[in-house]
Amino acid sequence: MQAKTLRAAALGVAVAATLSGGIALPAHAGGENATTTVRAAGGSEGPGSLVSAKAIANLDPVLASVTKRADRITYRSRSLNGEDIVVSGVLLTPKGRAPKGGRPVVSWAHGSSGISDRCAPSSTPNKDGKVDLYGYSALVAELLKAGYAVTATDYEGLGTAGEHPYIVADSEGRGVIDAVRAAVQADSTLSTSWFAVGHSQGGQAAIAAGELSKSWGKGLDFRGTVGLAPVTDVGQAYNYGSPAPVDRGFYLLALHGLKTVHPGLRYDQFLGDQAMDMLPKVETDCTAKIWEDFSADLGDTLNDYQFTPQTLEAALRLQGWLDAQSVPRGKSPAPMLLLQGDRDPSIKIAVTKQAVRNARAAGTAAEFRLYPGEDHYSVLAPRGQGGAATDVIDWLDSHRTR
């Protein structure tokens, strides 16, 4: 891999490493969730209703230095099968006085952390025992310094009851939107103007949220979508069931996510016996550990047959299931910006460019920016270090008002 490339997997913020330029993405062990008291469901409380807010005592210093309020929140949402659920996340507000009309909100969507509750970014400690949103503290701190409040969903079933529908776009999108409603309820200094911003898996979530903003997000003032190294073509991301060795652990996560919307999915139709034996690890490990272990165990040790549909019928079924989670799928009512590095080993430039073309064809004002020399993670760095973070903030600032 290139000099700046983290020892990281295709879709997740994964390992302990420091990018040349200074952004650190620490390793996470996966800690116990903070205890939160959840009120009994009220009859009139709908998606986005705040359930609880509890101060984060062990916040990462990078975030603490620029944060006025830092709470782990829980809020109501609704699963794709219509069940009322509770989702967890974080609410952060910057220091200083809020502007007239309230602070705009960035709803942050994280990259892959895993599917176990141990991996929820709102509570998972890093190696220093601090909550840093699973390694994204530097980028989120830049958003706070720019005057944005940040609400960061863990996604459905990640940190709360139920299964996490990993890589299921509309589930992620609902979590992103409902986190904004909960944040506005929790803090009267926030406005209803908001942006969806995400990385990798979170880029998919942010795009899905933008497309849902006129329906699921009705009543909020949606201003735009930013996807950093976003997953857009989900089928391509897993090579339609023949993933590269680096992606094999995440292919298992994707099958687990697909099973939440296709309960009849049988793992043995999409995996060989040896790969089947490894499923329990991805159901309990976070992505840092998945990458560390699976890069050795699932690299060249096991043959491709272990990670591919076992019949033609299964292959065709998987293709349709993966394509159904690809984004964009329609028009977003606000502009979109997709960015990535040209040394990204996970997200192909041609695929992201095609996503921009698809968005434009649907009527979305979409643009693409490429960062020479940057990879899947170093693209998160500020402009002075070659990354996109400063350009993201400039773009947000230019779209605060219409």
Describe this structure in words.
The protein is α/β, with parallel strands linked by helices. It contains twelve helices and eleven strands. The chain has helices at 61-64, 137-145, 169-186, 201-212, 234-237, 248-261, 273-276, 279-284, 287-297, 312-323, 349-361, 389-398, and strands at residues 17-18, 24-25, 50-55, 67-78, 84-94, 103-109, 149-153, 190-199, 221-228, 336-341, 366-371. It is globular.
Indicate the topology.
Blueprint: E1 17-18, E2 24-25, E3 50-55, H1 61-64, E4 67-78, E5 84-94, E6 103-109, H2 137-145, E7 149-153, H3 169-186, E8 190-199, H4 201-212, E9 221-228, H5 234-237, H6 248-261, H7 273-276, H8 279-284, H9 287-297, H10 312-323, E10 336-341, H11 349-361, E11 366-371, H12 389-398
Parallel strand pairs: 6-7, 6-8, 8-9, 9-10, 10-11
Antiparallel strand pairs: 1-2, 3-4, 4-5, 5-7
Helix pairs in contact: 3-4
In summary, what is this structure?
This protein has 402 residues and is an alpha/beta fold. The protein is 29% helix and 19% strand.
Which features would summarize this protein structure in a list?
alpha/beta, single chain, globular, 402 residues, disordered N terminus, two-stranded antiparallel sheet
Category by helix and strand content: alpha/beta
Strand order of the largest sheet: 3-4-5-7-6-8-9-10-11
General form: globular
Radius of gyration: 19 Å
- Main sheet properties: 9 strands, mixed
Beta-strand segment tally:
11
Look at the structure and give the mean pLDDT.
88
Strand content: 15-25%
